[in-house]
User: Which sequence fits this backbone?
């Protein structure tokens, strides 16, 4: 209740969206449909990968931009065929060699009870390998691991993700694992919780780490917010984080 009150007080002090120097533009019907579109990944050359539940099943799609118009989203031609489950929430490693994504159980997709696991595919010339499930330490039985985001720090690969596994603060928490990139067969470390600066008794999800500015962006309904899941950012990395800042309007509403 105290957090809700702080969020209400904060919302009253936010400037109106019209005062912002940021303009939000709807991307258009080539990408957006009557269903849910989410998890966009932008690439140079006006290329966009994103997730959609159009047709009733979550899949990853690709669209290209021609001026102000985006092409009709299509399943990537060289993406491996996923036989079972719904797949979404992709993230490409900075070197372009590894693509992490989530495969979720069929049915009831999009609510907190849907169980998901994280997989990875690796580049093989002009195509991709078959999906490999990440180890049990990440994909624990009976809990969800989802929303992967991968960054590189020298020879270390850092994978941030969201999970409702035990040992967290409550609900969905943000976690990370690391791997030594110098060894092809190196396994990820044990998951580490990002700690109380980031995680709350509520839900934290969709981490995105900006390596250039050293900020983690994520959504939360546990920090003081204007309503539902707001976007927050925090300076730091791995286990050392500043108090998150609400991204404000027009991002949050």
Assistant:
């Amino acid at each position: 209740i105290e957090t809700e009150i702080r969020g209400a007080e904060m919302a009253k002090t936010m400037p109106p969206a019209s005062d912002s120097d940021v303009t939000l533009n709807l991307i258009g019907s080539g990408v957006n449909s009557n269903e849910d579109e989410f998890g966009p990944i932008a690439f140079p050359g006006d290329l966009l990968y994103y997730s959609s539940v159009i047709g009733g099943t979550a899949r990853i799609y690709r669209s290209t931009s021609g001026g102000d118009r985006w092409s009709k989203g299509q399943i990537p031609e060289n993406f491996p065929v996923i036989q079972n489950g719904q797949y979404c929430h992709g993230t490409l490693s900075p070197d372009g060699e590894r693509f992490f994504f989530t495969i979720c159980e069929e049915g009831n997709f999009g609510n907190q009870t849907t169980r998901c696991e994280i997989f990875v595919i690796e580049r093989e010339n002009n195509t991709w390998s078959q999906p490999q499930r990440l180890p049990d330490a990440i994909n624990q039985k009976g809990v969800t691991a989802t929303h992967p985001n991968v960054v590189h720090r020298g020879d270390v690969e850092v994978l941030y993700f969201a999970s409702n596994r035990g040992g967290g603060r409550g609900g969905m928490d943000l976690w990370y694992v690391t791997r030594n990139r110098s060894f092809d067969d190196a396994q990820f470390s044990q998951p580490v919780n990002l700690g109380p600066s980031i995680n709350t008794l509520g839900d934290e999800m969709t981490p995105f780490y900006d390596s250039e500015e050293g900020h983690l962006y994520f959504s939360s309904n546990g920090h003081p917010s204007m309503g539902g899941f707001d976007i927050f950012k925090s300076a730091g990395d791995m286990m050392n984080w500043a108090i998150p800042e609400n991204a404000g309007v027009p991002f949050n509403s």
Q: What stands out?
A: The two ends are 19 Å apart (CA to CA). The CA atoms of residues 104 and 111 lie 11 Å apart. Residues 2-13 form the longest helix (12 residues). The mean pLDDT is 91.
